[in-house]
Amino acid sequence: MEASFEITLQMVIAVFAGISAQVLAAYFRVPSIVLLLLVGILLGSDGIGLLHPNLLGMGLEVIVALATAIILFEGGLNLDLRELGRVSVSLQLLVTLGTLITLLGGSMAAHWLGEFPWNIAFLYASIVVVTGPTVVSPLLKQINVDRQVATLLEGEGVLIDPVGAILAFVVLDTIVNGDADPINAIIGLIMRLGIGSAIGGVGGYLMSLIFKRANFLSFELKNLVVLAILWGLFSLAQTIRSESGVMTTVVAGAVFANSSVPEERLLRSFKGQLTILSVSVLFILLAADLSIASVFALGWGSLFTVLALMFVVRPINILLCTWNSDLNWRQKLFLSWIAPRGIVSASVASLFAILLTQRGINGGDAIKALVFLTIILTVVCQGLTAGWVANWLRITSKEATGAVIVGCNPLSLLIARFFQEREETIVIIDTDPERCEQAEAQNLRVIASSALDVTVLEEAGLDSIGTFLAMTNNGEVNFVLAQRAAEEFSPPRVLAVFPRDPQANPNSNNKVHQAFATDVTIKTWNEYLNDGRVKLGTTTLSEPELSQQQGRIQEKIQAGELIPLLVERKERLQVIPVNQKWEAGDRIIYLLHDPRPNLLKRLSGGNQSTRLALEKLPEVEEVPLDKLSELFTSDTPGS
Fold this sequence. Notes:
Layout: H1 2-28, H2 32-43, H3 59-77, H4 81-86, H5 88-95, H6 97-112, H7 118-127, H8 133-143, H9 147-177, H10 182-213, H11 219-240, H12 245-257, H13 264-288, H14 292-296, H15 300-321, H16 329-337, H17 343-358, H18 364-393, E1 403-406, H19 410-421, E2 426-430, H20 433-440, E3 445-448, H21 454-459, E4 467-470, H22 475-489, E5 493-496, E6 513-514, H23 522-531, E7 534-540, H24 546-558, E8 562-569, E9 572-575, E10 587-593, H25 601-604, E11 621-622
Parallel strand pairs: 1-2, 1-4, 2-3, 4-5, 5-6, 7-11
Antiparallel strand pairs: 7-10, 8-9, 8-10
Keywords: Antiport, Cell membrane, Ion transport, Membrane, Transmembrane, Transmembrane helix, Transport
Subcellular location: Cell membrane
GO molecular function: antiporter activity
């Protein structure tokens, strides 16, 4: 009874410490793995001695195996095949050629710098070829990096985990059995990958069928059924061929995620929570089992080994694998810097230390210490600096360009044309076929469907576009659409036209900003555009007259005679929100209501049968704000 209570107490401490570290990491906005490592080491035998993972015995291996299955399945769920298609060549190279480069480079560094024998050096390198989605994914969510870079890093982390884990076991099997034939090693690797992929593909399809057709099951029970099937598939693959289960879990997750399963979000949420719990417990237990003395005993050579892995091997890897890609040097430099090792490396290293010791082979504890040194250095250095590096290189999602506009009308077409002329991605979504035809006639990409459908927003590429703008004639619908877009995709700028003050609305979402001005009536301004009763104006704000210019603009906005559309700042064009803070140097593009007809027919599209001209939009009339009132003295009462 006392022994069972001791084990129970160990698990309770690990869970409590892991979740506490996650909470602190969220509060201080630092990578959670950093605190998990520190807390685990603090609670371990080299710290205050509260945690003793060795008391779990073989149970620790069971926990590691089942938790790793959940972690990799959740990683597979996040693999979007459409997004991966954009970086497929680079990703394939990173998982194949990149694995080989890291294996060879890491081995040479460990042998020549760390003075490890070649067999142990190769074993170390095989363990650290993985980067780990459990570290990369939370890190990318925190810094909101450019979507193309994020997709490549996430795809690498998820796909290279099973490849690296299987490779490590193949290398271990070669060392233990003394079989140095590379052909046998390659065959073993391919067999494990093939068996795991086959079982995972069938299992993922089975899971999707259950979610689609088992309507008698509640959502909660479906989630648990998927968990039971996942562990069953993992065990089946492990039974057929050892270590093929890791590939099974990734493929099962990827197949399930790309099967258009309803209520998939609920499963993602459930598995995401399990992943957080699994990562928290595993890192606490594995870090607590680490001997700090063994890390210091490695000497300076091992430190140089890790630094060579970070500053030599990784950049060479990225340079060769992305040579012919469309990535710019900023993106490649960021990819070279971000390669933190995670839970798979830690768990495999811990397991190998035990297996090598049991077989009487020296080097098990040294490998574990060197792997954890790699984890600590890569996570702390790269994790804590990733946000700063992304901002310095200007590759955060805040720098994303382009726009998805819901609502095809003269005003949205006019805004779309500005983005189009700058060669930025622009997508218009509307359910009216006739309006869609008008937009397509202007070479604009149009999706004739409802923006309430998340798959439509995915098709529009909202996860890699900077602005979402809902501007149909229905303000309530616009607000709902914007909320949905913010919740599902979190684009940097989410705007909607709705006739109310967001500050006064108790149900307002601070992620959704009111576009243009308060109480804008889209229908009225579209009528102005169709009748040609507008002027398109631009004014650049200057430092000496900034307050006066802002005041005059606000007067015209409140009078309903002006609607600000876009602001150009630092050569970046953005849709203007109501709460826009203007600065000197901003170039404001706006529409002025002019009762005199036919002044902007060629720009606004004129009537229903005339579309916007395709030629480059000429520089619009520069209207000094101190002369705005003169435009209305003869036609507008009170101006």
